[in-house]
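In keeping with the milestone schedule agreed at the kick-off meeting, the structural modelling team has produced records for the first pair of proteins. Each record is given below as a sequence line and a structure-token line. The laboratory manager (R.T.) confirmed that both were archived under the project's standard naming scheme.
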Amino acid sequence: MRLADDVATCASMAISLEACAHPKPGNVDRLHDFSDTKLQHFLATASAVFPWMRRACWRGYRVRRGTLPPSEAALGWIIKGAVLSMLRWQKGGNTSLGSIILLVPLSAAAGACGKLPVGLDRLRDWVGKLAKATTPRDAVEVYEAIRRVRPGGIGKVSELDVMDPSSTKQIVEKQITLYQIFERSAHYDAIAREWVTNYRLCFEVALPEFENLLRRGFSFSEAVAQAFIKLLATSPDTLIARKAGWEKAKWVMRAAKEVYEAGGVLTDEGRKRVLELDRSLRAKDNLLNPGSTADIACATSMIALLRGAKP
């Protein structure tokens, strides 16, 4: 199906374009690698997840046609499949767990919209419907995917800890859906918060900035980088919070706000401050890597592509 191919292409391109965008303080970009995770690993991931984003689109399309109930969109199974494919096809470890968790519902929602380019309100409406229709089976699949990845700084929580095998039994016995899991974790995890706020940061904070810059003639890379800085200036990065503590995450947010107010990547002074912030974040053994912000910037990039933007 042409639609499924096109939507999966948007998802794969979003991963590649976000990874390459420069400058993105503290993250892998086209000029910076980490010691264990490099740009090539993100590009490999972009290709590896294509079939799973295609499946997500197709199932969303079937939901729209009425041949599949929303509860059987199988977002959890698709997330798990994409994560395992990510790990299978590259040696850089966890490149894109958060991005995958955000891109799968977007792919399914785009399928439910029925055509590209998508309408913004319709896309967001379908994202919310599909997320709320998730099941305990979806939760179990996502827990299994996260356990395979073992993301950095994941820590422990008092209830339904993802690394505790007994959590799976509790999810099944209490019939807790994936959406409900994310509701419980939204206060400390930005990716979960996007799910339960219907992608608020993507749609309301980053996308207007992103599309405005494209209309003004800035490059796709500049739009990604500037949207990334605005996101980082808006909300503490929860990956930094898990690895280095909330005070560090808030310090990075305040520093990003100063960078954004100076113009970010759009002015000479702003770019100078972006590079200064980048150096300060890279001096901490990647503890100050704003990975959650990068995932949200990636999802924003996909929305822009679904709406017809081109690099």
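The second protein of the pair:
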Amino acid sequence: MIAQPRSSQRYEGRKTDRDRALVERMSQLSRENPRYGYRRVWALLRREGWSVNKKRVHRLWRQEGLKVPDKQHKRRRLLLDTSENGCTRRRAERINHVWSYDFVMDETEDSRRLKMMPVVDEYTRECLSIEVERSITAEDVVETLSPLFRRRGEPAFIRSDNGPEFIAGAIKRWLEVSGVRTLYIEPGSPWENAYSETFISRFSDELLKREVFADLLEAKVLVEDYRGHYNHHRPHSALDYRTPAEFAVAADLDTKVKDAEKPEELESVLTLS
């Protein structure tokens, strides 16, 4: 017996203990990926084998005060996308249908310029390459695309703005010989190249604004590490929270199944998958 009134006693539930490991993992994922919200963290948890639904993650997320730092977005109305070459009217329908590329600028610790050129498959959202140099010319663009064409095959179209590196005669002729048609967006209309713009926004938010590059070599290494993480580990909400690499594998299998004309061909495709 202890000299305490029963009214002062409280039952301590075990729910807190049950959620502790989950909350710790959520907090760790939030620290590692500060630009991820609870939905993307939920997708990462599911990929790791946690049996947890989105509502529970949301409740614990709010309870622990986890959040993505506030930021403002400028809005652009999609009604302005009237170009035949914009991503709204000319949408990718399969792997290697439409690629897009653009430039993003940064600098090393000594304030010297870095110029980067991501290449994106618009259908799978895969980042196929990110060239990182002090400067990138039209000839460098060709040198970047050439091994991609050999390894992956030529896209039907490649979308870009009207930057001098993209409209140079040398690259136009090379793309024409390669059988790739160009989609140049309207000047001053970056929303028409939305897939590249979206990737660059994520790339800047999740890497460039968080890292100080000591030199060009370090920038190349960290950028390539990010590209691997983006393709193979980062769940993409537009792909039902699959990674671009997972979506690409599923899309490729679906294409092979549709193209299989005979039962034995279909069986062979399913066996290889």
